[in-house]
Amino acid sequence: MRLYSLSILYKGDCKVHLLKSAYDVSTFSFFQRKIIQYWLTVTFFLLIDYLCHVYVRNDCLAGVVIADTEYPQRVCFTLLEKVLEEFSTQVDRIDWPSGSPATIQYGALDSYLSKYQNPRDADPMSKVQAELDETKIILHNTMESLLQRGEKLDDLVSKSEVLGTQSKAFYKTVSNSRVKCCDACM
């Protein structure tokens, strides 16, 4: 699971302004990184897909997260809500219409991008869900082993019944032999 970009935009009159963005393109080759970063910057204005999560608030402040298909959608929107709320308290609203990545002083995007790379570590709900999934797997394996033990116990019971029947037959044979032997001795 991977996050590639986290951006803050302002949707003004007929124009969208990029206010701040952070990128993690370290998984791409050195020569592709600038192209990928440029592509991410240009396409988050156009992307409408499950890989691109967009959150626009009533005050026209917007956030975009671009993630891979495995990244949970709920965590993306939790991240966007948290980032936009923090941004709106730290950056004056007057700077939004004319702001740019060079002029906006907000440095938390890189830390959020890093922190949310693993949704289990960053989001308590994802952590609980992962623990539930692991518990479900363990429970399934335990039930399976119990069923196998039950089958083994059934095999042991049937073998012990056969052994009991054979021991009774052996006892009768020995008793009959002893009676014949004792009759012969007298």
Automatic annotation (TrEMBL):
<dbReference type="Pfam" id="PF13774">
    <property type="entry name" value="Longin"/>
</dbReference>
<dbReference type="GO" id="GO:0006888">
    <property type="term" value="P:endoplasmic reticulum to Golgi vesicle-mediated transport"/>
</dbReference>
<dbReference type="InterPro" id="IPR042855">
    <property type="entry name" value="V_SNARE_CC"/>
</dbReference>
<dbReference type="InterPro" id="IPR045848">
    <property type="entry name" value="R-SNARE_YKT6"/>
</dbReference>
<keyword id="KW-0175">Coiled coil</keyword>
<protein>
    <submittedName>
        <fullName>YKT6 v-SNARE homolog</fullName>
    </submittedName>
</protein>
<dbReference type="GO" id="GO:0005484">
    <property type="term" value="F:SNAP receptor activity"/>
</dbReference>
<comment type="similarity">
    <text>Belongs to the synaptobrevin family.</text>
</comment>
<keyword id="KW-0653">Protein transport</keyword>
<dbReference type="GO" id="GO:0030659">
    <property type="term" value="C:cytoplasmic vesicle membrane"/>
</dbReference>
<keyword id="KW-0564">Palmitate</keyword>
<keyword id="KW-0472">Membrane</keyword>
<dbReference type="Pfam" id="PF00957">
    <property type="entry name" value="Synaptobrevin"/>
</dbReference>
<comment type="function">
    <text>Vesicular soluble NSF attachment protein receptor (v-SNARE) mediating vesicle docking and fusion to a specific acceptor cellular compartment. Functions in endoplasmic reticulum to Golgi transport; as part of a SNARE complex composed of GOSR1, GOSR2 and STX5. Functions in early/recycling endosome to TGN transport; as part of a SNARE complex composed of BET1L, GOSR1 and STX5. Has a S-palmitoyl transferase activity.</text>
</comment>
<keyword id="KW-0449">Lipoprotein</keyword>
<dbReference type="InterPro" id="IPR011012">
    <property type="entry name" value="Longin-like_dom_sf"/>
</dbReference>
<feature type="domain" description="Longin">
    <location>
        <begin position="49"/>
        <end position="113"/>
    </location>
</feature>
<keyword id="KW-0813">Transport</keyword>
<keyword id="KW-0488">Methylation</keyword>
<dbReference type="GO" id="GO:0000139">
    <property type="term" value="C:Golgi membrane"/>
</dbReference>
<feature type="domain" description="V-SNARE coiled-coil homology">
    <location>
        <begin position="124"/>
        <end position="184"/>
    </location>
</feature>
<dbReference type="GO" id="GO:0015031">
    <property type="term" value="P:protein transport"/>
</dbReference>
<keyword id="KW-0636">Prenylation</keyword>
<dbReference type="InterPro" id="IPR010908">
    <property type="entry name" value="Longin_dom"/>
</dbReference>
